[in-house]
TrEMBL record, chains A, B:
Top-level taxon in the UniProt lineage: Eukaryota
Identification of the protein by name: Glucosamine 6-phosphate N-acetyltransferase
Reaction(s) the record says it catalyses: D-glucosamine 6-phosphate + acetyl-CoA = N-acetyl-D-glucosamine 6-phosphate + CoA + H(+)
Subcellular compartments: Endoplasmic reticulum membrane
E.C. number: 2.3.1.4
Naturally occurring in which organism (per UniProt): Aegilops tauschii subsp. strangulata
Keywords, alphabetical: Acyltransferase, Endoplasmic reticulum, Membrane, Transferase
Residue span, N-acetyltransferase domain: 48-194
Coiled-coil residue spans: none
Pathway this chain belongs to: Nucleotide-sugar biosynthesis; UDP-N-acetyl-alpha-D-glucosamine biosynthesis; N-acetyl-alpha-D-glucosamine 1-phosphate from alpha-D-glucosamine 6-phosphate (route I): step 1/2
């Protein structure tokens, strides 16, 4: 594992300063920021691209897609922008990927999404753990491997960020699905709802 | 759930500015910062106090305690301070509690610890989820309810922060333990190790 100093010392900088972006990367005001080398959008077999969430994805069906996973009331443009900015301010410690089909109707272009957030610990010399959350594929686009592509990319990003593991919680029915991404069952998820 | 704007708009401020603390609260350089009303250290039946992690807890056995949970190499004073500062900069979005026995030898005073970090989502109108991690009780102090006290306090903090749920992952053997804190089994934890 990385030394604690190397691992920890980057956190404050990322949390407190907008990362310096290459000139070619759009501002974090409109796109999730990244200071790490970022692969170009991947062309899948069916023209769908996997990329980071952009603020304009509110108009491309991002929230209706999330509502297929859990309660997701609509957000006004300014509410969406506020949420986006708060998450983008976390830099590489929070990544939302989307699968976009540029051939679809504008408001139905976002077909899949998934999120990674990076937790810092005192354990493991100041180690990092990736948490995958909020993975969903549009009901009309299932069976095309879009969710797996999103998850695999999130796992790659976590590995590149120096995480020693990535974890997620799912229903028992989804064990085999995530096994395709290299996940193995490790424990039990417990919850308290307020 | 809170509106997205109310929920999200606080994040950037916390991430980018050190919170303004009441005069009576020690600086975040030495103690985990808090902008929310914080209960006084709780006296348990056996004089053990539950409180937030302080930087001086490195000298009170915090890392040896964590090493009972997972690999936890020692950190130098400056490495520990760097980790501490990075986590403290997250304000109320990251809380580490410890149970301290002031009657014990100085280097063995920290008997239990547990961590809460708060995840922000687009789901649920910009909702928040609390994640409980890294709960451990010193082998010589088990059976005194210290871990449950730490976890219950973390759950209270998450509720106070507006989380709609708190989740954790554990081994199947610990189901009954966390049930005492109101947790119910919800799913399966999956992991990839690098």
């Amino acid at each position: 594992p990385p030394t604690a100093h190397a691992s920890c010392s980057t956190r404050k900088k990322k949390a407190c300063h907008l990362p310096k972006l290459p000139a070619s990367v759009p501002s974090s005001r409109t796109q999730m920021a990244s200071t790490s080398p970022e692969p170009a959008a991947t062309e899948t077999g069916d023209s769908v691209k996997i990329r980071r969430l952009q603020i304009a994805d509110r108009e491309r069906g991002f929230l209706p897609l999330l509502s297929q996973l859990s309660s997701c009331p609509d957000l006004t443009e300014s509410e969406f922008a506020a949420c986006f900015a708060d998450l983008a301010a976390l830099g590489d410690d929070h990544v939302i990927l989307v699968a976009e089909d540029p051939a679809a109707a504008p408001e139905r272009r976002i077909l899949s999404t998934g999120c990674l957030f990076v937790e810092r610990k005192f354990l493991r010399g100041g180690g990092k753990v990736g948490h995958v959350e909020d993975v969903v594929v549009d009901a009309a686009a299932r069976g095309r491997g879009l969710g797996l592509r999103v998850v695999r990319r999130l796992v790659e990003i976590a590995k590149g960020a120096g995480c020693y593991k990535v974890i997620l919680d799912c229903t028992p029915e989804l064990r085999a699905y995530y096994a395709k991404c290299g996940f193995v069952e490790k424990g039990v998820q417990m919850a308290v709802y307020f």
